[in-house]
């Protein structure tokens, strides 16, 4: 069973129950439970290969579970396929690990892809929305005309974020949003996520290794280990939780140098 250390029962926007995923003989998740509350920023953490990205992909319907249920906004995602999943996916935006921008399209054209796919709005309105989302993501207006190869790593993330926000989603999924950014870029990106979360009332599901992000941006943290979520709670809950990986991660040298574990150790 998952230890849920913060026992409020708020509005649950994502509910995962008894999830099993496997690739061939390899079991990635087994009997995994997780609830995500509306309006929170939840950080998913765990060792390399623990199954964090696969969990994200299962929740958005890109990986089919072998057992269990995944409900998003009350809909059993695993039962949606083809056009139904495509239409339902307008409820969320996704920032994939490497940005996943179309290299042959400009930033503005990338942001317009979901608008073209899901709406029949006139081109002028699309242009207006894409430039709004581009500036909302912290890029200068001229970034819209650039191609992905002309962007820095941080700009690629921002452009991908602009695309993820194109359809005004309720939920934002982020896979390692600060990976590959220098510490200043990473903390600027953290602030951007926090600002957008507040301004747009988003629920944010974020896979991350970044202790600073977990400490500064996330309302709750879920730890993935032993094929399931072993604990969910606040940073203080993590610091108090007795499990070898959790102790190693939240009290290790990086945690101490980030400063937040020191006061407890
Ligand atoms: N499409 C796939 N086919 C087969 N195995 C896969 C596939 N996708 C992921 N895996 C395997 O599932 C396991 C979990 O992968 P996942 O990417 O979720 O890990 P992670 O926790 O996100 O790790 P990291 O922090 O290193 O990114 C890994 O062993 C990976 O090799």
UniProtKB/TrEMBL annotation:
Checking Gene3D superfamilies in the record gives: P-loop containing nucleotide triphosphate hydrolases
Keyword set, alphabetical order: ATP-binding, Nucleotide-binding, Transport
For this protein, the record's PROSITE patterns field holds: ABC_TRANSPORTER_2
| Pfam families in alphabetical order | ABC_tran
Outline the extent of the ABC transporter domain: 14-251
InterPro entries the UniProt entry points to: AAA+_ATPase, ABC_transporter-like_ATP-bd, P-loop_NTPase
What are the recorded GO MF terms, alphabetically? Answer: ATP binding; ATP hydrolysis activity
Acyltransferase keyword on record:
no
The entry's protein name is ABC transporter ATP-binding protein
Question: Which organism was this protein described from?
Answer: Govanella unica
């Amino acid at each position: 069973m998952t230890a849920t250390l913060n026992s409020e029962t708020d509005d649950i926007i994502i509910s995962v129950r008894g999830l099993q995923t496997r690739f061939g003989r390899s079991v990635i998740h087994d009997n995994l439970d997780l609830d995500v509350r509306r309006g929170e920023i939840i950080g998913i953490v765990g060792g390399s290969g623990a199954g964090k990205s696969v969990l994200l992909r299962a929740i958005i319907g890109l990986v089919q579970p072998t057992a269990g249920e995944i409900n998003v906004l009350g809909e059993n995602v695993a039962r949606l396929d083809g056009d139904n999943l495509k239409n339902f996916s307008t409820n969320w935006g996704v920032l994939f690990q490497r940005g996943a921008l179309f290299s042959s399209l400009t930033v503005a054209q990338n942001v317009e892809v979901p608008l073209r796919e899901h709406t029949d709005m006139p081109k002028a309105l699309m242009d207006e929305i894409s430039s709004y989302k581009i500036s909302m993501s912290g890029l200068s207006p001229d970034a819209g005309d650039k191609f992905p190869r002309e962007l820095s790593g941080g700009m690629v993330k921002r452009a991908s974020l602009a695309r993820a926000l194109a359809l005004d989603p309720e939920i934002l999924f982020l896979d390692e949003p600060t990976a590959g950014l220098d510490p200043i870029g990473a903390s600027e990106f953290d602030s951007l996520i926090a600002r957008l979360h507040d301004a747009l009332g988003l629920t944010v599901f974020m896979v991350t290794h970044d202790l600073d992000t977990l400490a500064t941006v996330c309302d709750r943290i879920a730890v993935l280990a032993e094929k399931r979520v072993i604990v969910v709670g606040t940073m203080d809950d993590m610091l108090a939780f007795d499990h070898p990986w959790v102790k190693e991660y939240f009290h290790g040298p990086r945690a101490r140098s980030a400063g937040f574990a020191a006061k407890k150790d």
